């Protein structure tokens, strides 16, 4: 008797499965943009509520103002970095032209003193290139052709990322405006799935998202400021630009040493031994140490989730999903941890244990 209703529902289940699959294929190009928008809107939601109250409930205007602010916050630093990078590339190009036009090449004293084999090899390569001008022209043509291909690929990536950023900002407007209604629907769906624990899972995901965002951003900001102080004291060129680059690299766990370490090596190669060693000591004892203080304090303590689980979530999410994985990886593991604790504390498990 029960087989007939089940068989009658199979076409509906099949059609629903196909519809979900096709919907995923249609929405797949926008998933990353929507996820970024959801994270940005969620983190800035308290500010939106204050603005909405000040505007006496005018949601469209409040959402528009928040979206404009979000655009300025994201596009402003990117535009500033691109302008500085353009000037840096010009300076580097002029330096390369001056270096190539020299009659002789003398490696830095640091390399000559501590790495004589490397100094001899650099001098040999320089001599070979300048003894054969045709070889120089051939190498320049080959490298220029390779560089054009890489620049074309880079330009395409930049264009795609700018399009994703535009979609993220566009999506954020609607999430601000309709966020409360979307949240109510999500809570209702969770109650249908798990009436007792749905709200707790949603709360766990929200707390972890907020903690991870603030933990990663605050840690990267603190490390970048401390590294920038080190750059300025050590006399590194363009410390403001290097600080901005350090902030971007510091968003990736354990990435900060590559930033200040590269600057320290450059200072050593330039013959500034004391400045390079001092920057390396500052980076090791201060810049990298602050990561072990702020990140666990903000993330692990505020969410009561093991820092090891948070670290696995950050690194695993980064490997699986890219930059967005820095945030959604820990959230996934936090929800899984909540499910695990819920199952351990379930009455059915207690009854089985007592029996």
Q: Find the count of extended strands (DSSP E, 2+ residues).
A: 0
SSE succession:
HHHHHHHHHHHHHHH
Instruction: Kindly report the average pLDDT value.
Output: 76
Largest sheet: none
| Count, helices | 15
Roughly what percent helix?
over 70%
Poorly predicted parts: none
- Tell me the number of structural domains: 2
Shape: elongated
| Approximate strand percentage | under 5%
Structural class: mainly alpha
What does the model show?
- The chain is mainly α and 355 residues long.
- It has 2 domains: 32-103 and 141-192, no CATH class; 194-344.
- The chain contains 15 helices and no strands.
- It has helices at residues 3-27, 31-43, 45-54, 59-100, 109-114, 116-131, 133-193, 198-234, 239-250, 256-269, 273-287, 291-303, 307-321, 325-344, 347-354.
- Helix 8 (198-234) packs antiparallel against helix 14 (325-344).
- The longest helix has 61 residues, at 133-193.
- The model has no long low-confidence stretch (mean pLDDT 76).
List keywords for this structure.
about 350 residues, mainly alpha, 2 domains, elongated
Task: Break the fold down into its secondary structure elements and pairings.
Elements: H1 3-27, H2 31-43, H3 45-54, H4 59-100, H5 109-114, H6 116-131, H7 133-193, H8 198-234, H9 239-250, H10 256-269, H11 273-287, H12 291-303, H13 307-321, H14 325-344, H15 347-354
Helix pairs in contact: 2-7, 4-7, 8-9, 8-10, 8-11, 8-12, 8-14, 9-10, 10-11, 13-14
Explain briefly what this protein structure is:
With 355 residues, this protein is an all-alpha fold.
